[in-house]
Amino acid sequence: MKRRDWIMLSASALGFTACGRQITARQPVSYNFEHGQTAMLRGGIAFAPKRAPEAVKRAIQAGNRLQGKPYKWGGGHAVLNDTGYDCSGAVSYVLREAGLMQGQMPSSGFFNYGERGEGKWITVYVRKGHVFMTIAGLRLDTGWGSNRSGPRWLTKTRPGKGHVMRHPRGL
Predict the structure, then answer these.
(1) In whole angstroms, what is the distance from residue 138 CA to residue 33 CA?
(2) Among candidates 145, 158, 165, 157, which has minimal Cα distance to 71?
(3) Could you tell me the superkingdom of the organism this chain comes from (predicted)?
(4) What is the Cα gyration radius of the chain?
(5) pLDDT digits (tens, 9 = 90+) for 102-142
(6) 102: in domain
(7) For labelling alongside 84, which of 11, 24, 68, 76 has CA 20 to 30 A away?
(8) Domain range spanning residue 72?
(9) pTM for the structure as a whole
């Protein structure tokens, strides 16, 4: 076995993937309501489609519990049920509460979360220093740039280019 092959085998055994194998978003992340397929947003509260898998419904319920919490650097990491959340703390909270991961991880950890590419129900978008997600087509984000208000359901389109897409297995 060549040294390079051994290094790649060792990296994959640890859960790392080569950057060239990641699937990155090329389009903006947009919300387009489709009855029965996407979550509905009313008064800042999200409602899952009736036929969504239970894990998706739990993820939306968890995202609803984060609404109104402030952005807090490191929030959701040292304290799982925190008074505020940063981007990775919010995504970790939702996935953990939905039964789709254990514990929490920093944004860089999501480069190796779940499966590659866009999911049918849940997609995690990650780039260096930031992570957000869509659940049943509705975006949960803490904001970007100087607009860090805390975890919110958002329907406004945001740039997706350059973000690696990952999703929970089967979703």
Answers:
(1) 9
(2) 145
(3) Bacteria
(4) 16
(5) 999 999 999 999 999 999 999 999 999 999 999 999 999 99
(6) yes
(7) 24
(8) 23-167
(9) 0.84
Angle at 39 between CA 33 and CA 41, to 5 degrees: 85
Contact 98, 82 (CB under 8 A): no
16 domain residue, yes or no: no
- Hey, what amino acid is at 19? C
User: Quick one: tokens of 106?
Assistant: 């920093």
**What's the CA gap between 89 and 106, in Å, rounded?**
7
Q: Are 39 and 138 in contact (CB under 8 A)?
A: yes
Residues 6+ apart with CB under 8 A from 106: 77, 88
